[in-house]
Amino acid sequence: MSFEQNIRRVVPYVPGEQPNRPGMIKLNTNECPYPPSPRVAEALKGLEAKQLRLYSDPTAGELVRALADRYGVEPEQVFVGVGSDDVLAMAFLTFFNSERPILFPDITYSFYDVWAELFRIPYRTCPLRDDFSLRMEDYMQPNGGIVIPNPNAPTGLLERVENLEQIIAANPDSVVIIDEAYVDFGGESVLPLVDKYENLLVVQTFSKSRAMAGARIGFAIGSRKLIGYLNDVKFSFNSYTMSRMSLAVGRAAVEDETYFREITAKIVETREKSKRQLAALGFSFPDSKANFIFATHGRVNAEQIFMALRERNIYVRYFKKPRIDNYLRITVGTPEQMEALMEALREILNGSTDQ
Question: Could you tell me the pTM of the whole model?
Answer without folding.
Answer: 0.95
